[in-house]
C-alpha cells in the first residue's frame, strides 16, 4: 500500500462548457482498491467521469490528473483508452449499422497494438468474446447486432461491462452503471465488475444508490458535493448515507435531492 | 479536339442506319426507327438545360463543353481492358466495351431453358419479335433528350429474357466498361433490355465503370418489362473517373402483382446523372428503390427517381442514402406520382444524407403528386453530420478518430448493403463500398450545429 497511487487527482478544477463544476478534487486511487463516489444530483459526479476520459466539451481549468505517473489531461480519449482508462457510460449510445462484434474486435486490437501484443484474428477474437460474454450472461445473437441498437437498458449496461472485460483496463470508472437496473440485471453487472477486481487495477464506482455497494463492496467511499469531496470513509459511510441522506454532512449543498 | 455536339454531328454522318442488321424485317424496321427518331428528337431538343425542370440540380454546361475524339465503340480496342481486375473478378455473362459486346462468358451455358442472355446481334436472330416489341418502348425520345441520344447512337445491347415461370438460378451479370484517354476522350452508349414473362424471377447485376481515367461521356439505358407476377431485382454499380460524365437511365414497367427492386450504388468521382423510374400499371405491384451514393472531391451525383402508381393496391418503398465529402455535391429528386385510379396506394420514401465536410452539399426534394384520395404516403429527408456522441464513444474505446469516422460512415451505409438479399452480390457491394470509403478523406470538422 505504500507504492505510488495508480491514479492521482490533485486540486482538479473543470468546466462543463462554460460552467465551473469541479472546484478542487483530491483523490488517490491505489492498485487493488475500489472507491465509490456518491453525492446528490448536480454534485459533479458525471462531470468527473467525463473529465477523466477526455470528453470534448469538458475543460480542465486547474489541478492535475496523473495515471501511472503520466499526465492524463493532455491525452486524446483514444490514447487514454489504450493506456488503460475505461468509462462504463451512464447512457450508452446506439450506433446503427455498426456491428457489435466488428466494433469490439477493432477496439480490442487497438488496445493490443498499443500494448505491443499481436492482433487477434477473427477466430481467436470470437473465442475470447464468447468466454467474456458468458460472464455477463449475454446471448450470442447480440453480438452480430448493431451496437446497443434495440438493446434494453440492462443489455446496454451489460454490453458496457463486456467491453471492460475485453479491454482489461487498469483504471475502471463506472458512471451510475446501476441506475435503472432491476436486481437480476444488477447482480449480473456486479458479477462482471467483480471479475475485474485485481491487485493491478483500481475502480472508481460512481453511484446514486447504496444498493450497488452491496454487490461491489468498496474500500473507500467519498461524498461529492458542489464539485468537492466533502467526506470520505469506509463502506459503512454508504450505509449511513442510505439511512440519513446527505443533509447531516458539513458542506453538502441542500437541494432536496432524491436520496 | 471536337466539342460534344459537333463530335456527335460528325459521328452521325457516318452512322449505319440501325444498331445491327436483323434478319427479321420487323426488328430491322424497329431498330432503324429507334435510331432515326432518336437522332431527330435530339437534334430538335439539344442538350437539357437548367431551365428543364428535370435537370435543375445539374450544370449541363459541363456536358456541352466536353471535348470528344471518338463517338461509340472503336473497332480495335486495347485488349488490355481484359486485364482490368474487375473483368476477372466479375466474370460477366456479357462484357461490353464502349457499348459494344467484347466478350461473352461460357457460363451462359449453365442457364436453364427459357432463360436467354444475349447480345443484340444474337437476339436479332434468336428472339427478334420480343426485341422488336419491347425495345425503346419505355422512353419517349421526344421529351427526353438523353434517352433520344442513346436511341440514336447505341450500337449493341444486352438482351435478357425470362420465359414465363423460369428462373436463371443465379445472378445474371453484365459489365459495361468505358475506355478513353487524355487525348482520346470518348462517348459510349450502352443498352440493357430485360423482359420477364409471367411468374419469372431473376436478378440482374449491371456494373458500369471506366478503365483508368477514361475521360468522356457514357450513357446507359436499361429497360425492364415485368409481366404479371414476375419478380426482378436489379443491382446497378456505378463508378467512374473524375473526368467522366455518366448518365444512367432505368425504366421499369410492372404488370399485375409484379415486384421490382432497384438498387443503385453510385461511387463515381465524376458527374453522374442516375434516373430510376418505375411504373406500376396494374394492381398488386411492388416497387423497392434503394440507393447509396458516395461523392468525394468535386464529384456531382444527381439522382432522379420517379415511382408511378397508376393502379390501385400498389406499394412502393424508397430509400436513397447520400454520403458527401470534400466539395462534392448531390441532388436527390424523389417523385411519387399517384394517379386518380390508384386508391389504396402505400408509398414510402426517405432520403437521409450525411455531409462529412463543410464544402459538401446536398439538394434534396421529395415531390409528391397525389391525385387519389385513399392513399398512404410518407416521405422525409434529413441532412446531418456524424453523431458526436457516437464518435466519442468509439474513441473512448481506443479506436482512433479516423477509424471511428470510417466506422460510423460505414454504419450509415449499412442499410443499403443489408437490402441486397443475394449473398455474393451483397459481399461484392460491401467490398466496393469499403474500397471507396477507405480512400475517403474524413477530416475532422471545426464546428457542428
Write a structural description.
Helices cover 34% and strands 27% of the residues of chain A. By secondary structure, chain A is an alpha/beta fold. In chain A, a hairpin with a 2-residue loop joins strand 1 and strand 2. The radius of gyration of chain A is 18 Å and the shape is globular. Chain B is an alpha/beta fold. Chain B contains ten helices and 22 strands. In chain B, the strands form three sheets. In chain B, strands 3, 6, 7, 9, 11, 13, 15, 17, 19 and 21 form a ten-stranded mixed β-sheet that branches. A ten-stranded mixed β-sheet of chain B has the order 5-4-8-10-12-14-16-18-20-22, covered by helices on one side. In chain B, a hairpin with a 2-residue loop joins strand 4 and strand 5. In chain B, helix 8 packs across helix 9 and helix 9 runs antiparallel to helix 10. Chain B is globular. In chain B, 53% of the residues are buried. The chains are: A alpha/beta (259), B alpha/beta (449). Chains A and B meet through helix 2, strand 7 and helix 3 of A and helix 8 and helix 9 of B.
Amino acid at each position: 500500500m505504500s507504492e505510488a497511487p495508480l491514479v492521482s487527482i490533485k486540486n482538479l478544477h473543470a468546466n462543463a462548457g462554460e460552467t465551473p463544476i469541479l472546484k478542487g478534487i483530491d483523490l488517490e486511487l491505489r492498485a487493488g482498491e475500489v472507491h465509490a463516489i456518491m453525492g446528490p444530483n448536480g454534485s459533479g459526479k458525471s462531470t468527473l467521469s467525463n473529465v477523466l476520459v477526455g470528453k470534448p466539451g469538458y475543460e480542465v481549468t486547474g489541478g492535475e490528473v496523473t495515471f501511472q505517473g503520466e499526465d492524463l489531461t493532455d491525452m486524446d480519449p483514444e490514447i487514454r483508452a489504450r493506456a488503460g482508462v475505461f468509462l462504463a457510460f451512464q447512457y450508452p449510445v446506439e450506433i446503427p449499422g455498426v456491428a457489435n462484434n466488428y466494433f469490439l474486435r477493432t477496439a480490442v486490437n487497438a488496445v493490443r497494438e498499443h500494448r505491443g501484443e499481436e492482433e487477434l484474428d477473427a477466430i481467436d477474437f470470437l473465442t475470447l468474446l464468447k468466454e467474456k460474454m458468458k460472464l455477463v450472461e449475454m446471448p450470442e445473437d447480440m453480438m452480430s447486432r448493431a451496437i446497443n441498437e434495440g438493446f434494453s437498458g440492462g443489455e446496454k449496461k451489460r454490453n458496457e461491462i463486456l467491453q471492460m472485460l475485453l479491454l482489461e483496463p487498469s483504471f475502471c470508472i463506472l458512471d451510475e452503471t446501476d441506475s435503472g437496473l432491476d436486481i437480476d440485471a444488477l447482480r449480473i453487472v456486479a458479477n462482471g465488475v467483480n471479475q475485474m477486481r485485481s491487485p493491478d487495477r483500481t475502480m472508481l464506482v460512481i453511484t446514486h444508490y447504496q444498493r450497488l455497494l452491496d454487490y461491489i463492496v468498496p474500500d473507500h467511499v467519498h461524498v461529492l458535493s458542489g464539485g468537492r469531496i466533502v467526506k470520505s470513509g469506509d463502506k459503512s459511510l454508504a450505509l449511513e448515507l442510505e439511512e440519513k441522506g446527505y443533509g447531516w454532512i458539513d458542506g453538502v449543498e441542500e437541494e432536496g435531492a432524491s436520496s | 479536339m471536337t466539342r460534344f455536339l459537333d463530335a456527335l454531328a460528325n459521328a452521325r454522318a457516318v452512322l449505319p442506319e440501325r444498331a445491327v442488321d436483323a434478319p427479321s424485317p420487323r426488328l430491322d424496321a424497329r431498330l432503324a426507327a429507334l435510331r432515326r427518331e432518336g437522332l431527330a428528337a435530339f437534334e430538335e431538343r439539344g442538350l437539357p438545360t437548367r431551365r428543364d425542370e428535370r435537370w435543375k440540380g445539374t450544370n449541363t454546361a459541363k456536358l456541352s463543353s466536353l471535348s470528344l475524339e471518338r463517338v461509340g465503340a472503336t473497332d480495335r480496342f486495347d485488349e488490355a481492358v481484359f486485364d482490368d481486375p474487375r473483368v476477372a473478378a466479375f466474370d460477366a455473362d456479357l462484357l461490353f466495351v464502349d457499348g459494344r459486346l467484347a466478350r461473352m462468358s461460357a457460363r451462359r451455358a449453365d442457364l436453364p431453358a427459357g432463360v436467354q442472355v444475349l447480345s443484340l446481334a444474337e437476339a436479332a436472330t434468336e428472339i427478334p419479335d420480343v426485341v422488336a416489341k419491347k425495345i425503346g418502348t419505355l422512353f419517349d425520345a421526344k421529351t427526353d433528350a438523353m434517352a433520344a441520344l442513346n436511341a440514336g447512337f447505341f450500337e449493341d445491347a444486352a438482351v435478357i429474357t425470362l420465359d414465363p415461370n423460369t428462373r436463371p438460378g443465379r445472378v445474371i451479370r453484365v459489365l459495361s466498361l468505358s475506355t478513353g484517354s487524355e487525348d482520346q476522350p470518348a462517348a459510349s452508349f450502352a443498352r440493357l433490355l430485360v423482359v420477364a414473362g409471367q411468374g419469372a424471377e431473376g436478378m440482374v447485376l449491371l456494373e458500369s465503370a471506366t478503365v483508368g481515367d477514361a475521360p468522356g461521356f457514357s450513357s446507359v439505358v436499361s429497360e425492364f418489362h415485368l409481366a404479371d407476377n414476375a419478380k426482378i431485382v436489379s443491382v446497378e454499380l456505378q463508378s467512374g473517373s473524375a473526368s467522366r460524365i455518366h448518365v444512367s437511365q432505368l425504366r421499369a414497367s410492372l404488370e399485375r402483382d409484379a415486384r421490382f427492386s432497384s438498387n443503385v450504388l453510385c461511387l463515381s468521382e465524376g458527374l453522374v446523372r442516375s434516373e430510376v423510374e418505375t411504373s406500376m400499371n396494374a394492381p398488386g405491384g411492388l416497387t423497392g428503390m434503394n440507393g447509396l451514393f458516395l461523392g468525394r472531391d468535386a464529384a456531382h451525383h444527381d439522382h432522379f427517381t420517379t415511382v408511378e402508381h397508376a393502379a390501385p393496391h400498389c406499394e412502393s418503398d424508397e430509400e436513397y442514402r447520400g454520403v458527401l465529402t470534400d466539395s462534392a455535391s448531390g441532388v436527390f429528386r424523389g417523385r411519387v406520382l399517384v394517379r386518380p385510379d390508384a386508391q389504396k396506394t402505400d408509398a414510402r420514401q426517405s432520403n437521409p444524407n450525411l455531409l462529412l465536410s463543410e464544402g459538401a452539399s446536398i439538394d434534396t426534394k421529395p415531390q409528391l403528386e397525389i391525385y387519389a384520395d385513399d392513399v398512404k404516403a410518407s416521405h422525409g429527408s434529413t441532412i446531418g453530420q456524424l453523431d458526436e456522441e457516437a464518435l466519442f464513444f468509439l474513441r473512448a474505446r481506443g479506436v482512433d478518430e479516423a477509424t471511428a469516422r470510417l466506422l460510423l460512415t460505414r454504419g450509415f451505409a449499412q442499410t443499403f448493403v443489408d437490402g441486397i438479399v443475394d449473398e455474393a452480390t451483397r459481399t461484392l457491394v460491401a467490398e466496393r463500398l469499403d474500397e471507396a470509403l477507405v480512400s475517403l478523406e474524413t477530416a475532422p470538422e471545426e464546428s457542428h450545429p
